[in-house]
Amino acid sequence: MTGIVRRLRRRPPRYSAAALVWRGMRGDHWPRIWRDTELKRSYDAVVIGGGVHGLATAYYLARNHGITDVAVLDKAYLGSGASGRNTAIVRANYLTPEGVAFYDRSLQLYNSMALDLNINVMMSERGHLTLAHSDSSLRTMHWRAEVNKLQGVNSSVIGPDEISEIAPSLDTSSHPRYPILGALHHPPGGIVRHDAVVWGYARAADHMGVELHQKTEVLDIVCEGGEGSNGKGAGGRVVGVRTNRGDISTPIVVNCTAGWAGLISAMAGVRLPITTHPLQAAVTEPVKVFLPTVVVSGSLHVYISQTDRGELVFGAAVDPVATYSIRGSLEFTEELAGHVLELMPSVSRMRLLRQWAGLCDMTPDYSPVMGFTPVDGFLVDVGWGTYGFKAAPVSGEQMAEAVATGRTPELISPFALSRFDTGELVGEKGAASVGH
Amino acid sequence: MTMSRLGTARPTEVVDRSSKVRFRWNGKRFSGFEGDTIASALAAAGEHVFSRSMKYHRPRGILTADYWDPNLMVQVGDDPNVRAGHRLLEAGMDVRAQNVWPSLHRDIKALNGLVGRFLTAGFYYKTFMRPAWLWPTYERVLATFAPGGRIDPDTPHRYHDKRYTHPDVVVAGAGPAGIEAALAASAAGARVLLVEHEHAVGGHLRYSSSASARAALAELRAALDASDVEVLTDSTVTGRYEDNWLAIVQRSHPIAVERLIKARAKMLVVAPGLIERPYVFAGNDRPGVITSGAARRLINLWGVRPGERAVVFAANSAGDAAAADLDRVGVEVAAVIDGRDHRRVSAAQGSPKAVEAVLAGGSRIEADLLVVAAGWTAPTSLLNMAGDRPVYDPAAARFFASDPPGNVLVAGGLAGDGSLDELRAHAAATGRLAAQRAAAVAHRLQARTARARPAEGAEPAWAPDERTPLDRDPHPELYRSDTHGMVDFSEDVGSKDLVAAAREGYDSVELAKRYTTATMGPSQGKLETVNTVAAIAEARGETIAEVGTTVWRPPFAPITLGALAGRVFEPVRVSSIQPWHEANGVTTILAGQWVRPDHYGDPAAEVRNVRTNVGLIDVTPLGKLDLRGPDIPKLLNLLYTNKWSKLAVGKVRYGMMCAEDGVVLDDGVTGRLGPDHYLMTTTSSGAGAIWEWVENWLQTERPDWKVHVTPVTTAYVSINVAGPKARELVGRVSEGVDVSPEAFAYMEVRTATVAGVDGCFMWRIGFTGELSFEIHAPAGHGLHVWEALMAAGKDLGVGPFGLEAQRIMRLEKGHFIVGQDTDGLTLGPSTGLSPLIKLDKDDFAGKPELAWATERRLPVIVAIQPDDAGVVPAEASQIVRGETNEILGRITSSRLSPTLGRSICLGQVEPELAAGGTKLTVLLTSGERISATVMDHHAHFDPAGERLRG
Q: Which of B523, B792, B858, B945 measures 20 to 30 Å from A335, CA to CA?
């Protein structure tokens, strides 16, 4: 009951066309999207990482479970990591039934997000084409389509003529090198404005009482009773977090970081089978919109979409070498441009505007690590490789449930850390490696 | 404003008034002179509106009159977003305004300006949510606001090329400082590449009216002409990557549309000069409000009078120079407002062709031109890319380098201020230092890499930086006047938007940038970064240094995808037998990089011929690795799941490779040709990846092992001779090998001379299930060997067979194909080859995972036959539980067997369905469900393997 009252009291000023007009007429400023508060000395739960995963976890803790005494800590600004560096593609056309069910739930949450969070995240359900350039990839497309159909996910294999109709700029001629033989067409896939998702979760969580602390770097996780040094490691439990802004006591710490997930987990004495690779992306200058769908080519390691602002956004596979460096490379842009022109020669005169990189935490089975760890009170939602953005809503929802109930929800049980001790790895390599 | 061509030529003019160039602008005929940019020609013809702004479609005119001018983006033919302030006029150009409808002067979206107060930054995040079903329509409307030109779907990927160069010193920017640095470095013995963004060297000296500047420019040009410095104009150092790996975009190449130059420079001197920054006040984006640089360039480079009556706002000497230039060419200078005396311009108002300047305090001055000199932005982009974090100096009101790496030096305005002589002296010292350091780098590289020609003498010492630092002139911090105005001209973001964003909580520069899109447009912060930071600092009550700046990312100047891609070097691979295939009615199939024979008209007949007579298939793409060295058995034991220590010379063994997660990676046979010499074969599709896999293990995990790997896939043509009469045929053409079953048994390898070709390998294996000999002949003789076999086997009924026939036959035999019958989830034991997984070996790739996997119940590859022999379920058809949608497996391969006259399949099923005789339900892609039966063996045909051992 008190939870409901608090929620009503903290109800945010609604976003709507009428409110825009009203404030525009009166010349009123909008209030702060989230509060700027002092860091308290104790919380019921601390989430490390102010990206989409951390913010979604905090939001669902508050909304679904009434747990609002939560701090989200980020060493930079909200959405500064992979949340703001990904290419914002969402889809559910995975290969394994578990993968399909998980991502389909995420897609549902994305579809209702604008109304749920009262912020327009610009979910653009524009469809998603995964091109096949060989018989063997066409066979895989058929496989994915059949699995998707049985799971109630809209996917089908289409031929070059239909591809041309959807995306006339694609070169479907009988090209000698990478002919477009067909594609997996997934109409519910699309792109979302990634920053708006960050801000939407942050705003909604803040209004329910969650505290968001930027420029707050976690220096250590304080544990006791564990078998490692300083009470860390298996058998121990979390008692607090040390930050650059002071110490916090808390019984629950959720690690929602990417790029540094291994380092943060090591602070609790938990080792993760993660290597960190940069993933590069680039964007062109805007031109009038001509590409109405998301195009992916696994053989050419490229995915392409055009934003409503007219820019072409390109992504590729992760760099082969593990490193924390996020400087882009020249070779990436050269190879990327070559591959894009294989698919769409007519964009030869478009100019590359900017390139950047983000960090991807890769696990051996291209699947995340979610849920409880051998340290009591220390949970992880990490190892999200190149597919973290599209999974954020469902991950937050499930992680919140794990924190609130103390049990691993069924949907994320395949992703438990313990699978690396039993060998029961998840397999989404085929669909996830460049499958954006 | 009324612009026009000056009656008399300026001494600095770059246009050739005797040479007229005709072109079209929005469909109308115009003309300019040789040497004009598109914008200068249009300005001289009296045009004052060149584009419309992105959101409010406000008319926009010349702002900076150079490459970075955000208001001068036009479409030229099929080339979108052309910088009209930079692109030289060419005869017949079809130039059009972008993103306007129905026309540049009557643009319907200008109505947006009326509701601008509601369209604050990020307004779209706050609306268009209800009703949800209307959002797709809203989105389509929003997308029509995308700025920029149009892509013509027929634009070809024209000629592009790349150049690779290794200069000692690259100097980015050929203003007086850059030229001086290049000359000094060259004089000190360095090989120098000087790169200038504009069409000619000289920087600001080119448009300076002073006689001394003209004399200095003439002197520098003459020195440059006499030097060994290579000069590139209309080219930009656009990216700096690790170890001075530089991307230079050359727009001036005579043949290539645009060329990417990749330079590994030992030293980089950054001397790009400074970019003049707009001043933020109400109406600062109106046509007629221009920078002092634009005014001076228009007058002195192209002989264009920028207006009739001007107000000049001058906070520095560039503003004074502009006022003097205006006066000199007969423009009435109504007032000079001196920013150094705390005087300010508050607003620009007036009718479309007039600019009324409103001063702080309210007084007004009628004019048609407002020239603004408010300060400079330091283009620190290349320094950022080198890892430097430039720092803000409030006294000079701009950023300076903080601590760039030792192989990056800074000269010119980016380094400080001073007289021309002081800047030149500093730059010359910079050039000498660059040459000294380049020599040290060169020596070090020579000592490390070139064994043949060792570096001479001791390594030169790393020269210390003993340059006298330049002074920094004081400059007022002028960012925003007492009114709000435009900050990001390409994105239509005003200072008001930034203040509102900061108040709303987007108060770090990164958040504000993402929320308002300031600095995200085509100019990428060149003009607007510092004004953006200043607006946020003001809203937060902090200093610019406290707020900090965003990171400039490559590229500095945009580069076309065509130039980045260059020429397409993706090879199409064919075997040397391809001419024969083509002459004999082949239908090809693309497999990875290879074009392969799929069939020659009737695959079923090809199968029958192999099963009764003998057939030849070209399997050249089969991956082949030549292995040499004493530690090969160790390597094979590490990579394959089975044991290899006891393979005798002359023997061949099959092996399966698993990745570290236990998933099947590849399979193939490896034969021992000599004591320390093996030939490994891989799948055709895995040839490249397995080579990398082998090298990765050897180089990173077992560098002490003595194994040398040579990929020889394309060095040999591979021909499989299969069928009951294969021995007869092979015997006829081979010398030096006894092909009798006693002398050359199944799974053995021999060296032979085939059809007179020495150095062929031959092994007895059989993917088709028939007696077969696989011949690997030196690639150059492939066609000869193939034709010899064909000729020698005429009476035996020899014929070619393609991939399709081979796939049918291997399916009849139940051989799985890695990647088709297995997938990214298939663990070793699922293949039915558990006996080949030797967990008692010391170690091998995937062992721990395979140990776990053997204890688990995994999906299993089985042979399946539909109960209706005439139905062939499509590959990827799902195997389900009865009438439900529960997935229990799938068909991975299926064909109609010409040998058995029925449909046959391989599939993966759940372990409880793996036993022979189990009934399955297969869901066809049509939605129909059929019944099928699991077979006892993988082989549908000849399960005992009698034919292939024959």
A: B523
Q: What is the pLDDT of residues B751-809, one digit of tens each?
A: 999 999 999 999 999 889 999 999 999 999 999 999 999 999 999 999 999 999 999 99
pLDDT (mean) for A12-34: 86
pLDDT score recorded for residue B523:
87
From chain B, pick out residues whose CB is under 8 angstroms from the CB of A122: 124-125, 139
Nearest to B329 by CA among B291, B372, B377, B296: B296
In this complex, is the C-beta atom of B125 within 8 Å of any C-beta atom belonging to chain A? Answer: yes
SS3 B911: helix
Domain B843-949 - what CATH class? mainly beta
| A and B: number of Cβ contacts within 8 A | 295
Distance CA A150, CA A142 (A): 12
Residue (of B511, B552, B520, B551) closest to A195 by Cα position = B511
Is the CB of residue B682 less than 8 Å from the CB of residue B694?
no
Domain hosting A193: range is: 36-125+188-273+364-436
Identify the pLDDT of residue B452. 64
CATH architecture of B161-274+381-449: 3-Layer(bba) Sandwich (3.50)
Count helices and strands in chain A by DSSP H and E runs = 13, 19
CB of B514 less than 8 A from some CB of A: yes
Same fold, B161-274+381-449 and B479-563: no
Does B260 reach chain A within 8 Å, measured CB to CB?
yes
**Cβ contacts of B131 within 8 Å, gap of 6 or more:** none
**Average pLDDT of every residue of chain B:** 95
**Across the strands, what pairs with B858?**
none
Q: Does B8 touch chain A (CB under 8 A)?
A: no
CA angle B408/B411/B417 to nearest 5° reads: 145
Q: Which one is predicted more confidently, A2 or B670?
A: B670
| One domain for residues A311 and A258 | no
Residue B646 pLDDT exceeds 80: yes
What is the structure's pLDDT at B119? 79
Residue B555, pLDDT score: 95
* Assembly ipTM: 0.94
Would the pLDDT of B715 be above 90? yes
Cβ-defined contact of A16 to B500 (cutoff 8 Å): no
Residue of B nearest to A179 (CA): B590
Four-CA torsion B436, B442, B448, B454, nearest 10 degrees: -100
Nearest chain A Cα to B136, which residue? A124
Instruction: Verify whether the Cβ–Cβ distance B504 to A30 is below 8 Å.
Output: yes
A155 and A216 in a single domain? The answer is no
The more confident residue out of B115 and B251 is B251
Instruction: Give CA–CA dist A435/A417, Å, rounded.
Output: 24
Q: What does the alpha-carbon distance between residue A77 and residue A68 come to, in Å, rounded to a whole number? A: 21
> What is the pTM for the complete model shown?
0.93
Tell me how many domains chain A contains: 2
Q: Which of A311, A342, A362 is the last residue of a domain?
A: A362
| Average of per-residue pLDDT across A263-283 | 96
- CA distance to partner chain B, nearest, from residue A285 (Å): 6
Q: List the CATH code of the domain at B4-106+278-373.
A: 3.10.20.440
**Whole-angstrom Cα distance, residue B431 to residue B191?**
11
Residues 634-653 of B with CB under 8 A from A: none
Q: B479-563 — its CATH code?
A: 1.10.10
For residue B568, what is the nearest residue in chain A, using CA coordinates?
A: A338
Give the Cβ contact number of residue B857 at 10 Å. 11
Residues of A in Cβ contact (< 8 Å) with B242: 327, 329
Tell me the pLDDT band of A434, cut-offs 50, 70 and 90. Answer: very low
The enclosing domain of A339 has a CATH number of: 3.30.9.10
Give SS3 for B761: strand
